[in-house]
Amino acid sequence: MGNLQNWLKIFTGIILLGIILPAGVYAETEESVAVSKHAERETSIELYDVEKRMKRFAFDSGFHFEYPDAVRGIYVTGNSAGGSKFEDLLNLVETTDLNAMVIDIKEDHGNLTFKPDEDSPYADIAENYISDPEAMMKVLEEKEIYPIARIVVFKDSVLAKERPHLSFTENGKVWVNNRGEAFVNPFEKEVWEYNVEIAKLAVELGFQEIQFDYVRFPEGFEKKDESLSYTHGDYEDLDMNNIKKRVEAVTDFVAYAREELSTYGVDVSVDIFGYAATLEETPGIGQNFSRISDNVDIISSMIYPSHWTSYFGIEKPDTEPYRLVTEYAKVENEVLGALDSPPVSRPWLQDFEAPWLYSGPAKQYGKAEVEAQIRALYENGIDEFLLWNASNVYTENVDYLIGKE
């Protein structure tokens, strides 16, 4: 009886908070309120789960960031964020029209890039790349640089080797691709929970957005499907073929992640192959562009010219960045335009060379090539973008607003 009385007191207190708080303050605590400045979202006056409400009131990272007029960002590895290169990257953003950083929190091998509490279940997979994440966040806050946490999901050699039953195996061993990378199984909901809990750690550090990468099965999986051993989990008995099952699993993970993070007041974004926008669904990797877009706040297509074939009738896309991005943008705009509530489009652009495409000298990517991609986006009504360079060495003197009206 005493527990019931305590619970009623807590519930009454929460209701009173809703009554006595000024309208502006209360609005910012509602689960259904718009959490971004860049997109209007429907709100609801329906009562919702009390536990979620209490959690929303209790959570505060201690940092404050405003969403920029439009995100223009760069990719930053854990090594760069925690090392001497960070100063150079800060200077690049501060002295240009860039305004955001996508920082690795769970990187491509499956390790965290910072050390959580010693009793954290993730302590064993943590590297000390970012030795003082709080100090890093303070710098970003002071310099008004918008922080986005990148979390690599289903490419995870660490988890696959630690828990082979969550991965794909071949002849009793964890399967790896031709780059030596292992993946974990998107059908396994234990993997979903594992990654979303890491996302919550990133939010608690102060990150304003969670960007999930490698939200897919391994490339070419349709050719390995029958030879690999793995479970289908809850999807085993669905009356659909394996291609459709893969799409269901990937889409459901994204929906699950967004729901789990909804009480934290952060945006959720997903990186997706650019070619996924040109197909109903990808046969191997399980990405359906429209369905993923329906479940995120931001969609980030990787539209690097170097990664395309002659799909758009461009014989060598890497040599024609403006034309490639223009043709892609037309397709994406049509696909997103068909959705009732499309997400913000924020593509990844190329700021690197692709020597593997050439027998002689590679096409050099510098100021002209980066600006060509940006201009093509603006001309097609896409105002946000991210720049990718795996080594975090970005072209100097780029006009990041070129062609913007």
Question: How would you characterize the overall build of this protein?
Answer:
It is built from 13 helices and eleven strands. By secondary structure, the chain is α/β, with parallel strands linked by helices. It has a nine-stranded parallel beta sheet. A two-stranded antiparallel sheet has the order 4-5. Strand 7 (267-273), helix 11 (289-293) and strand 8 (298-302) form a beta-alpha-beta unit. The longest helix has 20 residues, at 242-261. The chain is globular. Mean pLDDT is 88; it is low at 1-58.
Overall average pLDDT? 88
**Got a strand count?**
11
Strand order of the largest sheet: 9-8-7-6-3-2-1-11-10
Ranges where pLDDT stays below 50 over 5 or more residues in a row are: 1-58
Class by SSE composition? alpha/beta
The CA-CA distance between the termini, in Å, is: 65 Å
Shape: globular
**Continuous helix count:** 13
Q: How many strands, what sense, and barrel or not for the largest sheet?
A: 9 strands, parallel
| Secondary structure: helix percent | 25-40%
Q: What is the succession of H and E elements?
A: HHHEHHEHEHEEHEHHEHEHEEHE
Instruction: Name the beta content range.
Output: 5-15%
Radius of gyration: 22 Å
Question: What is this entry, summarized?
Answer:
The chain has 405 residues and is an alpha/beta fold. It contains 13 helices and eleven strands.
